[in-house]
Amino acid sequence: MRQMATYDLMETFRNTNQWLGATARTMASYPAFAALPNPMIGWMAAWGEVTERTFERMVVKPDWGIRTVTCNDGRDHVVEPTTVVEKAFGDLVHFEVVGRPPKERKVLLVAPMSGHYATLLRSTAVSLLPDCELYVTDWHNARDIPVSEGKFDIEDYTLYLMDFMRALGPDTNVIAVCQPAPLTLAATAYLAELEPAAQPRTMTLIGGPIDPNATPTDVTDFGHRVTMGQLEETMIQRVGYKYAGVGRMVYPGLLQLASFMSMNAERHSKAFSEQILRVARGEAKDHDAHNRFYDEYLAVMDMTAEFYLSTVERIFKNGEIASNNFVVDGHKVDVGKITDVAVMTVEGANDDISAPGQCVAALDLCTGLPDSKKGQHLEPGAGHYGIFAGRSWRNNIRPLVLDFIDRNSDAPRKAANSNAA
Length: 421
Fold this sequence. Notes:
Structural class: alpha/beta
Order of helices and strands: HHHEEEEHEHEHEHHEEHHHEHEEEHEHH
Largest sheet: 9 strands, mixed
Strand order of the largest sheet: 1-2-3-5-4-6-7-13-14
């Protein structure tokens, strides 16, 4: 599996299907065919349109698409994403709201590096923008990073988070979603011990595998069932000649997408069949529900092999965060060193990826933190996606997170003084 030919074979398969879809759509658009009363012509055009779009989106990084935000003054303000810190494997991006005074709540939204782009948190970002000065970690696709930039594993990821926190300062409120939760906890603990002045004010961990064995799921069972040798042989490939990262060992996004799709093959097959029929009947729109979901879902990125393998081995198999034995750059991180950062965990009762119990384990690790600075929330009826997007997040969880931030900062007092003046 670990050959460029294998990576290029997957890309060839994707490219061929995109070409077939474009060819079918173009052929069906010939004026001569319009004179033939054959419904198959319309169906062929619909199949081509859906197929071309589907396979094209797999190699396209989605745009944030956040143009404006309505602020408390009742006006729509333009939003300009600006890179604050630029690094080889990921940037720190600030969503600057033009014409609005800086908000008291400074939030660092830590996006997962789990096969999808940071834009997966688009709705989360949109919901936070009106009330926060928002910063987001924007991770890069490993296939586009030259081998000369070196490795990138979970220790490097943790060091990146520390650099981002240093850049933003101690009045930062960190919100980590899913995969980065344990590494965000480690980064904060590292800063608490070595650079207390750089640690954030609050930290909210949402649906993250702090202790994967607290409540086993299919994900944790898979992590224990396969050996590292099996993973390396079956999941790791070298980037092909088409991309700047040629030769880099990666866990390909296309391979991970194939796994995602196969887990719910019947549901995805039905969704695409129904979309083809909608297109054929002229009922589909460019930004309808199907396209909005799959444009994001199908847009996948490669992870460096060392990041993927070290995540499985050290977070899931060895439970280094759960046992407080995580080492970064030769230094053993002690989560108990966190004494000033308020920590809150959020879990979904129906989360089948990071089940209830896995994330809240972070609070037990924070032995140096008083109970008054700890918080937890279990959202009834919410699955994994629902705890950071959708109705559960908007109506229930988001207000709780903002209230937790305010209760552990002087933002409300500053706002009150400003209004009084």
